[in-house]
Amino acid sequence: MFILYIFAGILLITMAMAFYLSRKSLNPNTIDYKKSLELVVGNEDFSNEWFSALTGEDVYINSEDGLKLHGLWYSVKDSEKTIILSHGYSFSLYGSVKYMKMFMDKGFNVLLVDHRYHGLSEGKLCTMGHKEKMDQVKWVNWIEKRVGRDSIIGSHGESMGASTVLLHGAIDDRIKFIIADCAYQSLFDQFRYRLKIEYKLPAFPLIYMGNLFHKLRTGAFYKEISPIEAVKKIKVPVLFIHGNSDDYTTPSNSINLHKSKNGPGFIYLVPGADHGGSFKTDPKNYQKVLFRFLENCGV
């Protein structure tokens, strides 16, 4: 009986830890919307004068499951080209502002989006790309109504946003090109890696129990959120970007994604760049590679 009590205690503790880790991923501490703007404009590498001269339009749409989603729209006169910029985990759409100028210089309208649960968008959960990919479909619908159905629409995402645009690209053929900056190849692999690095714990049994909690709350198991499976279905060109010194989501993720891509795919590994830091580390070559990619895409 005593052994049974010990076993039950270990099981309860393990379940509690798994629930905590699952909740931590689904309900991260997000950065306040106004604070995220202050962090961006206060960065010494940011062109605050250029950004302050722009006039953005707040846009709201409804998700498939009835959430009010927020975005910021910046138009270029008479342009039929639009780029959707998707931010990373726990930040807001202002995390994508640093990428705006190079696209606008090439004549692109820019749509910054707040993922569900982030920024000014509603939502009780962050689903790491699972439901966010369907939100992207809704944003493309909005762009088509605003600019026209013949418009050229591309996607750029950073970190979680990068994985989201890959998941979206597999289900929406209206996207003409995709740029994925420091994406994870699968949610299961990323959580297994972070569990080892942050907590020095093996995947079993915590990640498997957390997987069940994730399924109950989001409708998807970790392995169902798999950009590496999504890229096999994407026919349009994809540019994978990753910092060589990224120890949060290792560059092997983008390398494997690139290897799995069917059709045109390109990869750019940035020396010395950490997670989400490729543009900041080498903005000149980042733009050079991106512009060459756009030329190859015919846009």
Q: How would you characterize this protein structure?
A:
- This protein has 299 residues and is of the alpha/beta class.
- It has one domain: Alpha/Beta hydrolase fold, catalytic domain (Rossmann fold, 3-Layer(aba) Sandwich), CATH 3.40.50.
- Helix content is 42%, strand content 17%.
Element string (H = helix, E = strand): HHHEEEHEHEHEHHHEHEHH
Could you say what the CATH topology is called? Answer: Rossmann fold
Query: Percentage of helical residues?
Result: 40-55%
Q: What is the CATH first-level class name?
A: Alpha Beta
Based on secondary structure, the structural category is alpha/beta
**Biggest sheet strand line-up:** 1-2-4-3-5-6-7-8
* Secondary structure tally, helices: 12
Short description, anyone?
The protein is of the alpha/beta class and 299 residues long.
Which descriptors apply to this entry?
single chain; globular; 12 helices; 299 residues; 8-stranded mixed β-sheet; 42% helix; alpha/beta; Rossmann fold
